[in-house]
Structures are given as C-alpha cells and as structure tokens.
Amino acid sequence: MNIHEYQAKELFKEFGIPVPNGVLVESVEEARKVVSESPLFRGESRPAVWAVKAQIHAGGRGKAGGVKLARKSEEIPDLVSQILGKTLVTHQTGPEGKKVLKVWIEEGSNIAREFYLGVVVDRTTRRMTLIASTEGGMEIEEVAEKHPEKIFHLALDPLEGYSPYIGRRVSQFLGLPFSTQTQMVNIVRDLLDFFQRRDASMVEINPLVLTREDRLIALDAKVGFDDNAVGRQPVVRGLRDLSEENPLEIEASKYNLNYVKLDGNIACMVNGAGLAMATMDVIALAGGSPANFLDVGGGASKETVEQAFRIILGDPHVKGIFVNIFGGIVRCERIAGGIIAAAQDVKITIPLVVRLQGTNAKEGREMLRSSGLAIQVAEELYEGAEKIVLAVKGDK
Q: Is 246 annotated as a binding residue?
C-alpha cells in the first residue's frame, strides 16, 4: 500500500524526522483562502519561495510538470490551477497517467546540497537495508547503474538494532560537515524506527537536503507499506486513497485475490505467486503479452474462479484468458468443475485455454473437454501459452 507525499511527511513528523511546513488544498478556492489566512504565507518569517506539488502515487512528478515554484504567495493559486486536474504521465504512471486531485504547498528551503536516504527490505539478506547516496534528486536505480560507487548500503542485524555509529558512517560517506552529524544520527535512527513500527516495505527520502543554514530536511517522502501488515496498522489503513488505485485491483482485494493489472492482452489466472510469475514469463516467451498478475490462492473454488473471471473481463484490453492451475491442495477434477460452472455463469466470449496438472489432472482435463464449452485444454505450460497466443492472434 502506497500513500501520498504529504501523508508520509505527517507520519515523519510524528517520529521526529524534519520536514518542511505545508498545507494541502483540493481546489483553487481553497488555495486562495490558505494563502490569505495561513500564517505560513504571512508575516516576516515567511519563506522566500514556496513549492507547489502535485500529489499522486508516482515518482517523476517534477519532469512531468507537477512541481512548480512560487516566488510570491500571490502566484500560488495560479500555479495550483495549472496542476490541479492535470493528468501527469511519468515513468511510473504508465501511458494513461494519473489525474491530480490534491496539491501540497510547502515552504521552500535554501538548498546547499541534495542526498538520497532510504530503507528497504533486502530479500537476499532478509534484513532491513539502509541506502544512502550523494546523488540526491536522481532515481536510485539510475545511480546504481551508472555510479555504484556513490551508493552506501548496509544490511542491519535485527539482533543488534540501531547504534549511533551507523548514522555517523552515513554522515561520513555523504561528506556532511561535522556540525550536522548529530542531525544525521537522529534522522537515520528515527527513519529506521518508523520503518519497523509502521510495517513499511520501502521508505525513501529523495532528496534529503542540507540547507545553507546547516539543517537537514526531508524535502520529499515516498513510503510503501506491507499489505499483509496493514490490518494491524489502523493509522496507516486510514491513509489509503482509493482514487489512486486501479478499480479492478480494488475489486480483487474484496475477494482476497492477488491481482495486479499490466499492459498486455492475455489474462492469467493461476494458483500460486511463483507459478503466476512463471506463467507470465512463458506467455512472453511464446510471443504474447500478459494483461495481469492474478493469484487465486490454493483453493480455487467455483466462487473464487467466478470472481476472478469477472475481474479479468473488466479489463477491456483482455483478448484471451490462460488458466494455469496446479492441483495440490485441491484435486484437479474439483477445480475443473469450478472452472466450468464459473465459465457458464460469466459467459466468456473470448478464447480460453486451461492447463491442469497435479492430482487427478487427467480426469479434470477430460471434464473440460467434454463440457461443451469453447475451452482449449493443455497439459504442459508452454503448450498452453502457445495455444492462447495463437488464439488471440487469430481472434484479431
């Protein structure tokens, strides 16, 4: 689960991580009101510049025109009007982009240097890993590819926990002045504390800036949470913004289906995440393009399969369906019965290929063949992928 920048910064403040002051607006009228009434925009202590930032669940907003600077507070409502309602297309949104429904206005900073600071779960070491870079403002993947020597990373021992020397190592790697070392020690400590206590899966500050006044400030914030832990995080759960999520993915979550929409035209329905990944790879190998990741779980009952079919068919780009089931927990003839019943209820009109393997797979395949439905049956994975690719190409 992802949240907006302004929400992440509110959570950061609770943990003592320094962030700029700001306000959220959802209309130009609201922007005019806060500019005229909020202390942030009035008085002698007001900043020399304000940042007007689109709030969407994607990076690359600045390059897409979603971040603008105002030298005078009177300019802010006009900049809000330029961003609000605009569809931003970035490298993370896909070609359809995301419509901006909220804008965050925050005080600018007198920036001297920019850095990257983040925490992720490293699946290889099975530990939280701290990442820092001198190349703030850049995509960390790009830095890793072109300048790996500019990245600091440290897998943290869960038994040792945090010690101040970790923050000092980061500070030394980034070349920070000694006067800011205590700030960095505290920020790293608080960021790791936030990561653990809020069940995050990824936390990114890009950039973390050093101001000319020798202050470290989290100028941007990107946070993702472990979906499996959101149930025990009521504060986090309340931050979910359904307008930023794909409607089909929202519908799938109601039935505990693991569904992620992709850009292809061959839908996949599989029981097991690993098998689903392999299925998508084999479809691509056979010359097709997967339209989704969909794991229906070990049970694959009639009700589950029927809801999965409905969600798949809700995507207008889908031109064919490949069902790939391994019958381990549930026998294949029961799965075949569920597929037949669900296909009859949903009334599928596009090519459908089903590959069954596992317990009583032969009986299950025979049931599918004799069902009277337009279902192609396969025994091997690549065979099934070839059949659905050819069926979709022939259906054009």
A: no
Task: Give the dihedral sign, CA 370/376/382/383.
Answer: positive
> Are 121 and 235 within one domain?
yes
Distance CA 220, CA 206 (A): 6
Is 231 annotated for ligand binding?
no
Of 59-68, 113-122, 300-309, 336-345, the one with minimum mean pLDDT is 300-309
Q: State yes or no: 60 annotated in a binding site.
A: yes
Residues 81-101 pLDDT 10s: 999 999 999 888 878 888 999
Ligand-binding site membership of 106 (annotated): yes
User: Is 186 part of any known ligand binding site?
Assistant: no
CB 80 within 8 A of CB 52: yes
Higher pLDDT, 44 or 236: 236
25 and 15 within one domain: no
Pairing of strands 320-327, 266-270: parallel
Share of the chain above pLDDT 70, in %: 98
pLDDT band at 177 (very low <50, low <70, confident <90, very high): very high
Its pTM stands at 0.79
Residues 270 and 386 in one domain: yes
Q: What is the pLDDT of residues 215-259, one digit of tens each?
A: 999 999 999 999 889 889 999 999 988 888 878 888 888 888 889
Which residue spans within the chain are E strands per DSSP? 22-25, 50-54, 67-70, 87-88, 98-99, 103-107, 111-122, 127-133, 151-155, 200-211, 216-218, 222-225, 258-261, 266-270, 292-295, 320-327, 352-358, 375-378
Rounded to whole angstroms, the Cα distance separating 10 from 8 reads 5
Q: Which residue has the tokens 């962030």?
A: 19
Distance CA 373, CA 369 (A): 8
Report d(CA 396, CA 394) in Å as an integer: 6
Give the residue numbers annotated as catalytic, written as ranges: 116, 204
Which residues form the domain of 79? 21-108
> Would the annotation count 271 as a binding residue?
yes
In angstroms, the Cα distances linking 35 to 10, 51, 173 are: 20, 13, 40
The reply to whether 161 and 256 lie within a common domain is no
